[in-house]
């Protein structure tokens, strides 16, 4: 279950980056969306396979995405959706990291 949000966020980021590129020829959107999507994908793989730093990677990707999308949230449904999704994923993975590292 823990890897599913990371893979979902990876898909959302990649689709969001491609959509930003198609709609406005924004190369930064394509690069950033793909880059954060790759971090989420790697994190999901690490979580699923029991590797190291999967939860931390997903949390980092969530923080990066939130920081990039929050200032643009009022500009349309895609940035708003990415901001909300990154906040939810960030909260989920922050709890996972906390439970794994400190709550025992």
From TrEMBL:
The listed locations are: Membrane
Per UniProt, the keywords (alphabetical) are: Membrane, Signal, Transmembrane, Transmembrane helix
Q: What is its main location?
A: membrane
**Keyword Membrane among UniProt keywords:** yes
- What is one term from the GO cellular component aspect held by the record? membrane
Q: Does the keyword Manganese apply?
A: no
**Secretion signal, residue range per the UniProt entry:** 1-24
Give the protein family.
Belongs to the TMEM14 family.
Q: Any idea what this protein is called?
A: TMEM14-domain-containing protein
Q: Which organism is it from?
A: Calocera cornea HHB12733
């Amino acid at each position: 279950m823990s890897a599913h949000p990371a893979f979902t966020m990876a898909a959302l980021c990649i689709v969001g980056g491609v959509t930003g590129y198609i709609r406005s020829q924004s190369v930064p959107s394509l690069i950033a969306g793909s880059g954060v999507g790759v971090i989420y994908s790697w994190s999901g793989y690490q979580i699923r396979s029991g590797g190291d730093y999967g939860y931390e990677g997903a949390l980092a990707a969530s923080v990066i995405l939130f920081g990039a999308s929050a200032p643009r949230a009022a500009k349309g449904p895609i940035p708003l959706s990415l901001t909300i999704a990154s906040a939810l994923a960030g909260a989920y993975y922050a709890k996972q990291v906390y439970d794994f590292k400190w709550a025992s």
